[in-house]
Amino acid sequence: MAQQVPIDPDALHGTEGADGTVAVAPDLSCRRTMIANVLFLGVPHRPGWVLVDAGVTGSAHAIEAAAARRFGEGVPPAAILLTHGHFDHVGALHSLLERWDVPVYAHPLEMPYLDGSASYPPADPGAGGGLMTLLAPLFPRSPVDVRRWLRPLPPDNSVPGLSDWQVIHTPGHSVGHVSFWRERDGCLVAGDAFTTTAPESAYATATQEPELHGPPRYFTHDWQAAHDSVRRLAALQPEVVVTGHGRPMHGQTMRTALHGLADRFEILAVPEGGRYVNDPQRAEDGSAYRRRG
Question: What region holds the Metallo-beta-lactamase domain (predicted)?
Answer without folding.
Answer: 35-245
